[in-house]
Amino acid sequence: MVDAVASQQQLHKILLSWDYFDLWKKCEGGGGVFDELKPVPQTFASVKDYQSIMEPLLLEECCAQIMRGVEEGEVMTPHPAVVASHEHRDDFLIVRLVLQAGVTESYTDNDLVLICKENPEAENVNTSLHALGFCEAHEGQQILRVKFFLVPSSQTGGARGAQRAKAMSAGLTSPSSCWWLLRLGNISTITREWTALQHAHLVPFMDILLSGKSRAAPASKHLDIPPGMRAAMERECNPSQMSALQAGLDGTPVVLIQGPPGTGKTRTILNLLSVIMNSAHKGSIALMNSVAASADKRAEAKSGLAALLPPSTAERERLRAAQCPWLEGMLLPDGSTANCRDHVKPYDPIPQGAGVHDDCFGLLRRVAPHRLGRNMGPKAHVLVCAPSNSALDEIVMRILRSGLMDKDGANFAPSLVRVGVRSHHSVAAVSLDTIVESRLGGAADKGGKGGSGSAGAQERDRMRVAILDEANIVCSTLSFAGSSVFFRLTRKFDVVVIDEAAQAVEPSTLVPLVYLVGDPVQLPATVIATRAVDQGYDCSLFKRLQTAGYPVKILDTQYRMHPEISAFPSLEFYQGRLLNGEGVQEETTQPWHQQPAFGPFAFYDVAGRESTPPGGASIMNKAEAHMVLVVYRELVHAFPQLRRTASVAVISPYKAQVKLLRDSFRTALGEDAARLVDINTIDGFQGREKDICIFSAVRSPAVIKKGGKRPGIGFVADERRINVGITRARCSLIVIGNIRALQVDGHWANLIQSAIERRCLYRPKPPYADWMAGVLAGTVVGPVELSEKEFAALEKSRARAAKKAEAARVRAGDYASLDIKEELGLDEQVGERGTSGGAGELENPGADEGAFGPDEEEGGEEEGDKPIQLDAAAAITADQLAAAAGGGGGGDGGGGGGGGEAAGPAGVQGGGGGGEEADEAASGREDGDAGGDDSDGDGGDDDSEGGGGGSGGKRGRGGRGGRGGRGGRGGRGAGGKRKTAAAAAEGGGDGGGGGAKAGGRGRKRAKG
């Protein structure tokens, strides 16, 4: 078996061998740790195949997290450090560094650090003397013990790297030498996921993970739902929920439960826990074919939970690695765990003055453990995990509020413990530290200080392990579940339930018997490395197994949304299979629905402009923010009951827009009134709901951008984020966005079409407050219809988006034959994707501890189609328009249409970029816009063949050619310099060529 310490040391050798500055240059150029990465397939041939694909992707993600922290200023200021002493351990150099008083508190165990001879933030820094290090421990107040790997290897960079390693080894072994130390981030999560991959061959059901196929259920069921509980559950559950509860009771090792919005996913999890708690036969419900059963024949003579207790520490370690490798604790360098301690500090303390009320201590009394031998028999030991603290705390609060169901269908309170940091103060009553301090009479160790600190620490550790062993249910984030306290448990977990499993990367879910609960059509796993995303690393285990054909239990009835809200997501994302619960329409119909502008669904077409705040990378839209405020003020003015309740939410994909909205609401309404409006990002609102949700889409790029690039709408086009964003509302959903910008995406185009068909598309005109007042008074036309040109543009966008979606489906491997692939013009390489920009912004209100970066993901700026600018011709004459249109590029190569300078005052409208196919490219102006005198041409479409760029104006540049799926970039369009209308049209014929040859396939060069 792969030793946990050895696997961690292997990872450290790889990471600490990296040349930080060389890697930085590679990443800036679009590269990374590896020259090539393999795409994640649906199935794997072997464990070795699995590891060979996943390990490089994990390392690529680690690299991206490091670089991202530096780019966004998340790293600390460099600190001076002096070498106190050193020692050699195996192949590593262990250095004790002395830092200024108080500085060591900024560093934590498992931090990755950069050490340089010169200040790394200085200009023209000498990069020849630097190395990456791993923080092992603190010694006293000023000493930090750091591990380095300075042995030349394949990662150190050849002769130059070997020379750097030799020089650094000499420098760091020189007593009193001075250095600069910079914290880059914590690699605890990366380390645990790496360990999981190294132990993948020990997972009892690895055959399922590799093949994506379920095992045949045993002839006899292992478990069954007690009659009393079944009768009670059948009264409150619909058939799809009951089917999900029944899954896995026949011994199926992996169970997938998909919970679309509003289908009672959290309630199903609680019922699932009730079933697990009360359906076990005498003893444990651990896997019957556990590796441990054959590893220790002596255990066969034992029964119940005792069968899982190996007689020796070594065997206990082997058992743990076999059953749940990812839950390996962080071992000490010598391999021991006896002195390991977790320093758990509350992230969200109980507010000042709130205190711990009597009710809180009542909860503490309620969590008295169900010890073995009680009349109900031994309970199962269940670990409940989620990728984020917010999702986990939602489950904990629901258990505290409503309890679980016992075998007779009555309510009971299980013994429950919440482990980890950053838990919400509302679950403090069941946090591990709170229970420990309560049992120790408030005399818990305070950081190891004081005369009895050491004894207090040991007693605290012993008590923590005992509490976790006794608890029925232990709740932890996926990251914290790998901490050392779990390693010391003597009672193993029988079942693991992972909520929001579609948001977890695959290595984090390598555990024994798993109920994966989530929805792959909602938010994806957070992956920062664009190159890893391009290879499918953001695909969760849930999604991969589902795609491979593994059976999924789907909750099909929603009880949250008014049917007018649920209609679109049901049709668009769930193939029309999401049903409405009985009575949901009556429960969600409200008085404000009498005003159509505030109906169950409305779309406000606001032609604002997006912008980036100074010094920021996120995006905001002031016009949309103003419209949001106007809608809210009119709502609460007409229906004052909304002013007194926190029933309204404002959701936006971008942090900058959220900040702008919060500032605007505080300024306009005051602190107290603004506090009643929940303004958050899509990621921050995952799993939550409100009566009224106002969604600000933000994206509204300029018609022509400097540089000739035609931006898409970024990650706003991600169907999973669209789904989450528009399914948070119970009674009313109001979407505010620019339809001309959004319609480039197929899902948005379909939503716009849905709004038109239902006559709930509004087109506000400034000043928005006057327009809104007129609509409500009936003096201004309310719902609008699109003009003939606008409708044609929308239909074309929908058709193009549908074709791109089909191409993406085929690239993902969902095609019947190579003929289909050839017809769509796709590359042979399965999984190839269009190009995108750099990593986007991330924000996680409940991020896992030990992770670099967090929950909100703002994707790169994809270059794609822009809608036809319908009003662009209004300012120029027909002759100028004809001249500007120019000749069309075209043909199989996807060449760009040209476009000269129009004869006239500005020459604003140039020829178009290349289309997806010959017929679109031929029309020139259809898909791209060349620049005017002072503008640059737009880029061609990034289609499968590479569209050519539109020509530039007199002082503009030609647009960048589209990046071809099969070929290289399309050629840049020629700059138009002719001065007459006729000459301009002639010049417009010089469209850019298509992409270069690739894969041995010749491609035609586009002609004007």
Automatic annotation (TrEMBL):
Region annotation (Disordered) ranges: 826-864, 883-1008
Q: Which GO terms describe its molecular function?
A: ATP binding; helicase activity; hydrolase activity
Which intervals carry biased composition (Acidic residues)? 854-864, 929-945
The record's listing under InterPro entries reads: DNA2/NAM7-like, DNA2/NAM7-like_C, DNA2/NAM7_AAA_11, P-loop_NTPase, SF1_C_Upf1
Q: What would be one Gene Ontology cellular-component term for the protein? A: chromosome
Alphabetically ordered keywords of this record: ATP-binding, Helicase, Hydrolase, Nucleotide-binding
Q: Where is the DNA2/NAM7 helicase helicase domain?
A: 237-279, 373-440, 457-529
Presence of the UniProt keyword Hydrolase in the record: yes
Q: Where is the composition biased (Gly residues)?
A: 885-915, 961-974, 986-999
Q: Which residues form the DNA2/NAM7 helicase-like C-terminal domain?
A: 537-739
> Do you know which PANTHER family this protein is assigned to?
DNA2/NAM7 HELICASE FAMILY, HELICASE MAGATAMA 3-RELATED
Q: What is this protein called?
A: Uncharacterized protein
Q: Which organism is it from?
A: Pleodorina starrii
Give the organism's phylogenetic lineage. Answer: Eukaryota, Viridiplantae, Chlorophyta, core chlorophytes, Chlorophyceae
Q: Which gene encodes it?
A: PLEST009005
